[in-house]
Design goal:
- The protein is mainly alpha-helical.
- The chain folds into two domains: about 35 residues; about 60 residues, no CATH class.
- About 40% of the residues lie in helices and about 10% in strands.
- It has a two-stranded parallel ribbon with strand order 1-2.
- Strand 1, helix 1 and strand 2 form a beta-alpha-beta unit.
- The chain is globular.
- The model has no long low-confidence stretch (mean pLDDT about 85).
């Protein structure tokens, strides 16, 4: 279901060529100091921060606790999705079978 990914220019992305080869996903990098080029990511980070403040060590949280946050965020309606939830929209997309990435 993925075609592209847009990342920051951090050193943690140094293995992008390996990831591209392994997944077939094209990777793009946003310009420095241009978070608007990754709008949905920035919005999701803001939602995530409602549960875990910046610099939180996620390794101290259990997998079920992280899954609970994941489920809550994916079931939260989004204005940018026409007040649908990511879960519902994704299920609709899979059921339709007409999206280009499903062919």
């Amino acid at each position: 279901m993925r075609r592209t990914v847009t990342w920051d220019q951090g050193t943690e992305m140094a293995r992008h060529l390996e990831i591209t080869q392994a997944t077939g996903t094209r990777i793009y990098f946003c310009d420095s100091v241009s978070p608007w080029q990754r709008g949905s990511n920035e919005n999701t980070n803001g939602l995530f921060r409602q549960y875990f403040p910046k610099s939180t060590d996620l390794s101290v949280h259990s997998a079920p606790a992280l899954a609970r946050v994941d489920n809550e965020l994916n079931r939260r309606p989004r204005i940018t999705l026409g007040d649908q939830t990511p879960t519902d929209l994704f299920a609709t997309l899979l059921a339709s079978g007409s999206h280009p990435s499903l062919r």
